[in-house]
């Protein structure tokens, strides 16, 4: 009986130790993610304050940095947009798919993010709702959503050259919950209706 109790105690200690290590590991990754977001936000605030176009990196060896902020008031989302859609960028937040075309310029600019992180709720957006973009000069551009669609990326390619000024938010879309690496994309697209450096905020009008 004593041997059994001793064995159970040893197994409990081993199990507790292993679970503690797991908790510490989870805590480490969570702290790392929170620190990265704080550094990204700090870099963005510095970007807004500076007078030149030099990128402000969140840490010295970073390959990405914030270039925009996107706000979706109806789902209470406000997040920074990074300079591209590389694996490193999308690990920290949405990325600009069209680095040659920024929101507010004529054409259709694209912002992409993972469906299980920053863009997990964009399927809740509705036509007529607003998308607000703040650029690195601190200028706000407003878009009104007019298109919601699911597309097959194997067939349909993004249309960038448009006559009007648009923005499109993109994330993966699973038609089947067991599907992995889905080719389907959920698109939320809107047309520019106002900016605070020429027409004023539509929220304030």
Keywords:
2 helices; 205 residues; Sortase, Chain: A; alpha+beta; 26% helix; 8 strands
Q: Can you characterise this structure?
A:
The structure is a single chain. By secondary structure, the protein is α+β, with helices and mostly antiparallel strands. It has helices at residues 2-49, 87-92; strands at residues 66-72, 77-82, 95-96, 107-112, 130-135, 140-152, 165-172, 184-195. The chain has an eight-stranded mixed sheet. The chain is globular, with a radius of gyration of 22 Å.
The largest beta-sheet arranges its strands as 2-1-5-6-8-7-4-3
Give unreliable regions as ranges.
Answer: 5-13
Work out the radius of gyration.
Answer: 22 Å
Helix content: 25-40%
Query: How far apart lie the N and C ends?
Result: 80 Å
CATH architecture of the domain at 63-195: Beta Barrel
User: What do we call the CATH topology of the domain at 63-195?
Assistant: Sortase, Chain: A
Spatial shape: globular
CATH class of the domain at 63-195: Mainly Beta
Number of helices: 2
Major β-sheet annotation: 8 strands, mixed
